[in-house]
Amino acid sequence: MSLVFAGIMSHGPGMRARAERADPVIRDPFFATLDRLRDRLEDARPDAIMVVAAEHFANFFMNNMPAYCIGMAEDYEGPIEDPEWLRIPRRTVPGNADLSRRIVGKVMERVDVAYAEEWKFDHGIMVPLSFLTPGFDLPVIPANINCQGPPLTPLTRAYEFGRAVRAACDAVPERIALIGTGGISHWPATPNSGKINVDWDREFLRRWTRNDRAALTSYTDEETLRDAGQGGFEIRTLVAVAGACENSTGDLWFCEPIPIFATSGFAAVMNLDEETAAKAA
Amino acid sequence: MSLYALQKLLYELNRDPRVQQEFVADREAVLSRFRLGDEEADAIRDDDIGLLYILGVNGQILMHFAAWRGLSWDAYIQAMKDGLAKHGQVRGGIYAAVDGGEGGAV
């Protein structure tokens, strides 16, 4: 089949761990938007959800850091963090090793992706799943882009990774949903936590919804660090989703700063049916 | 600086309950496996979150160690601010590159 859903959303641990401290005037419509995102996902009737995440030293460290990695396990455990801290109970999340293997094989034709048969999910995957598949029952294909330990993969390569993921999805019979999750501007887990450059966020999301490849991949890491903090490096996950949908444009559903969540709360989708319509015409 | 080893210790501690048990029972045994400088080892011995931040530990590693050592979110943020006030700018790691070595200080 192919890709049946593609979206992006934020994943800050505060969305669960400190939810009651967010201003309800912003938080409630944000969470309602995520409910809408879940409805869109369910309407697409996916067989599996691929989560492109930017994990935070849960599985990958500087002893052997893959630029790109895709999970290939029967199941996964998460969260790796203290469940009381994150307020998401620890559980086993189903994978699909056979589907993963076929996807990894296709992606490898274009990108030298690593694979992992062990993977503990951190908040970067567990928080989005807790909103999108709250029963944790849809098989997950985790993908990771190193956004934490420089040197980091160039943004142009992240877009190419997305294109390779799309080619892989097109090559399997299953219906695949794709969610990219990372912060936009943020300075997470530092004294600057809560600082948000909302103008930068909105400009980035404008580029994303237009799927303007040149503009999306034009940020240098120095610029991102200066304007969007070290957390801004996580835009690689969002750029990859744009790459997977290179012939589509998207819609921004929500973007408002929520300091206690450390980022703007945001959600956006790509309109995959545009592409289908264009092919038919 | 042996920031790599310092972060590796915390990474293993964060993800492995067996290392956590060992750390609680015999912190020196865990410390002995990593080639740390004296200041780094003391920061681990003392749960000195502020100093670990100044030494360059990534917050994505440090915040989980702090939570495990019993610090609330606000206490964790305050510990880093106190570290900046006491020791000055961040000396290594990614935050030394941010804001010209000011460690992302507010």
Shape designation of chain B:
globular
Structural class of chain B: mainly alpha
Order of helices and strands of chain A: EHHEEEHEHEHEHEHHHHEEH
CATH 4th-level superfamily of chain B: Dioxygenase LigAB, LigA subunit
Topology, number of strands of chain A: 10
Helix content of chain A: 25-40%
Mean pLDDT of chain B, as a whole number?
90
Number of contiguous helices of chain B: 8
Beta-strand percent range of chain B: under 5%
CATH superfamily of chain A: LigB-like
How many domains of chain B?
Answer: 1
Q: Based on DSSP secondary structure assignment, what is the total number of beta strands of chain B?
A: 0
Helices of chain A, by number, come to 11
Q: Which CATH class of chain A is shown?
A: Alpha Beta
| Amino- and carboxy-terminal Cα gap of chain B | 25 Å
Quaternary organisation: heterodimer
Model regions low in confidence, pLDDT < 50 over at least 5 residues of chain A = none
Largest sheet of chain A: 8 strands, mixed
Explain briefly what this protein structure is.
The complex is a heterodimer of chains A (281) and B (106). Chain A is an alpha/beta fold and 281 residues long.
Summarize the structure in words.
The complex is a heterodimer of chains A (281) and B (106). Helix content of chain A is 39%, strand content 20%. With 281 residues, chain A is α/β, with parallel strands linked by helices. The longest helix of chain A is centred in the first third of the chain and has 20 residues, at 24-43. Chain B is an all-alpha fold. Chain B has a single domain (3-101), classed as Dioxygenase LigAB, LigA subunit (Protocatechuate 4,5-dioxygenase, Chain A, Orthogonal Bundle), CATH 1.10.700. Helix content of chain B is 68%, strand content 0%. The mean pLDDT of chain B is 90. Classes of the chains: A alpha/beta (281), B mainly alpha (106). The A-B interface holds A 17-18, 56-59, 61-63, 80-82, 85, 120, 148-150, 187-193, 195, 225, 229-230 and B 4, 7-8, 11, 14-15, 53, 58-64, 67-68, 73, 77, 80-81, 84, 94-95, 97-98, 103-106.
